[in-house]
## 1
Amino acid sequence: MNQRKHISPQQKVIILREHLENQIALSELSEKYHVHINLLYRWKKELFEGAAEIFSSKQNKQSAAEARSAERLGEKLREKDKLIAELVQDNIELKKSLNGDS
């Protein structure tokens, strides 16, 4: 009875990269790595189906990071506006006290 051969994700990537970059036929890779050709087709299908998710998650992460950054900048701006308003109010009070206005 044949035992199943375990192939790590890294090995799968190496095999598929060899197919895609070097344009080696899947039938040749099947013989070279002693893997059934149907497995190679399945890995290739999974790779391309998962690729869209990888790229979309990067965009989601990037937009979330941009949103956090924009929120922090908005908070800083609100703090500065508050500080400026306090300084203007203090300035007005000082001018009134120097001019003798009560």
Note: The chain has a mean pLDDT of 88.
## 2
Amino acid sequence: MLIEFSIGNYRSFKDVVIFSLVAANISAQDKRLDENNVFKVDTDLSLLKSSVIYGANASGKSNLAAALRFMRQFVLNSSKETQIAEKIGTEPFRLSTDTADSPSRFEIVFILEERKYRYGFSVDTERVVSEWLYHVPIKKETRLFERQLDKISVTAAFKEGKEVTGKTRPNALFLSSVAQWNGALSEKILGWFRRLNVISGLNDTALMGITTQMLADPNLRDEVVNLIKKLDVGIDDIRIEKGNLPSIASIPQEIRGLFDEFVKLSKRPDTEVVEIQTSHRKYNANGETVSLESFTIEENESEGTKKLVALSGPLIDTLKNGRTLLIDEMDARLHPLITRAIIDLFNSNESNPHNAQLIFITHDTNLLSKDRFRRDQIWFAEKDRLGATHIYSLVEFKVRKDASFSVDYINGKYGAIPLTGDLSHLWEESNA
């Protein structure tokens, strides 16, 4: 479970900003939201099942997804031999002389096996500048290790790292290195990062491989088909050609954590990407079903249907296993009612009994409703006049009980909208 994520000096983020899934001490007008959209971790902590992020184009909201993706990838890959001579792929804020030579900072707070952890690091393009790991065994946060450049201090509670302090490269994370040496806790934490998935709603091809694997599994196939049928896109069944599975090489590195759940990469040779076929009912003149007509998804289905099928695998996997999923551009090519139905899957005790978390980035203001979200679930990204992105929640505003979230947002009451100029005389000015 994700509690919060903070970043600083990365892409459009200059100062440290914090995105949080901690439920605020508020009550929604519709009490069903308090019952379904929030889950209690313990007596002191409740978390949100979903969160939405709005902002103008180029406001930096997608950079939040990029930052989380970078942290995940660096944790999972920095200690591998292929990274020995490589520079670290961080991108510091470029619009200020104050940050040009400063490290980028990333920190995440999460729950693993009912224990709270806080892990983070700061890096420049050459080396890890600092790194830290804390946990809360009972009530008080306790240090497991801290690092400043090559100096690593390990406590007795993290004894698995004792022998690795002198074996960690400057451009590798200590946590990742300990996991490489079979550290039990560090490997569990890396496992948590593998199950944290950050995907783009524009990259249907990559996601389709995950769904295909689920369709190939007899125990999971019906769940994918049932979800597609319930979302009413006219598909009665989905089939794949028996024996064909998607190529491992066709799955981008950033989402292989999901893909690994369905296939052992080292035990199966790559094969060509499978052809997925959908079935639609064929009717006679009396409107009676007479047969099923097969369609090739790539050639005969709409772009929206392709995306929905591609998304169905990651969505089901996340819900079934109580994971956290961040989707950038989730609503692209999807009807607002389908996007709303997906959100409702997460904001429900019935369809989300394992408290999976969905974070998504969108422009669709049809979703911005007090009937669907509490104020602490709604976030905005906005750039200041110096080009730096700030994020903030609607819970920070005083909102009237009869207010419309979507109308007030479009009218600029919450910020985070494009400030377009007067375009009525655009052609006259350009021809002057």
Note: The chain is about 25% helix and 25% strand.
## 3
Amino acid sequence: MEPPHATTDPPTSRLAPSPTGDLHLGNVRTFLINWSLARNLDWRLVLRHEDLDVRRASVDKIDAIEDSLRWLGLDWDGPSIRQSDDLAPYHAAMKVLAGEGRVFRSQLSRRDVREAIEAPHAGGEIRFPPELRPEPGPEWAFEHPSDGHRYAMPAGEEIVRDQLLGEHVYRPSDEIGDPVVWTREGCPAYQLAVVVDDHEHRVSDVIRGEDLLSSAARQQRLGRALEFDLSPRWWHLPLVSDGEGRRLAKRDGDRGLQWYADRGVTPARIIGLIGYRSGLRDDRTPMTLQEFMRTIDVESLRSLVDRERAAPCRILDEDHDWLVS
């Protein structure tokens, strides 16, 4: 069952970068669309840095991301937020889950799980099956925050109704099993943190990449387990890839905003290229932020999704050449 959607006043969305590197052009497109829709519909817009990856996130990267967003012309309401500034809400959430017997301590690594279920080595997620849960006892508590913990995912279907992609049915227990909700580094994992944050910040509308669509099902499950009575409305956007069809990613070293800015590229050229490759204009020409914003509404986003089902958005070498020309 899908929980009711949030109806906060005012409606609220969030920009939620991970400060683990520069913003690539796929990130930029999502943020431009998110910002434009929020400003057109008079939503409140929060900037939240998802900086709980202690090995990769840093203050310098947070500052650099904020500088890049301002360089593009984007703003947000109120001071920016860093997840790492206050872990108390996540601890409280884990206590709730533990009190309901929904989390258990597990120090098993991905490799341990793969070997236990005799799964071949491959990329992607490894399903943690119920058979690997510990027996009832002290492991089903949250008394050791320096240890990893998993959420005992209930069986059954979870329906996600997306504003752009329609209705999707997932079975999280069959697909990923019991996800990590607390890491061995002593921090909340992504799936728990984003649910708690969106509730804390009264987020009513989440705009993000399509790769996170299946996560919406997991997050709805966690939200109900935490007795959050409202779920955000979901808006998942198609991903941006390169000329070979590989999705843009920080970990692969794709060029970011700072790289272009250092070479004299203007925000209007970045925005113009994204507008062109998103089908919002007919050719590569500079485009102001206000011009881009005027192209974004619910119907234009649905049209974008329909177009990119047939012809995904790709940033080609010739696009990079145009930017720096």
Note: The chain has a mean pLDDT of 93.
## 4
Amino acid sequence: MTEFWNTKNVKIRKAHTCEGCLTEKQPGEEMEYNLGKWEGEMHSYYFCLECREFITKNDWAGDQLQEGFSAGDIGEWRREEEKEAASR
């Protein structure tokens, strides 16, 4: 259960890995910084803007994040969606 959660877009000053797709972003790029307390533990991580857009576009992905996710899950969901779109 989420006790509190804050997000903000930041221009990063050092390299960070997106928790959603595990791609590394370089200084000067924009990412979404997340900070919050979930199930009694503090968590912080970054999402690339592509993963944030995917989450925003797909309500089910946002719901899944509320239940918890593992590093790289969003990237996998994005690849699956791309495969489905290509097969249509």
Note: The two ends are 38 Å apart (CA to CA).
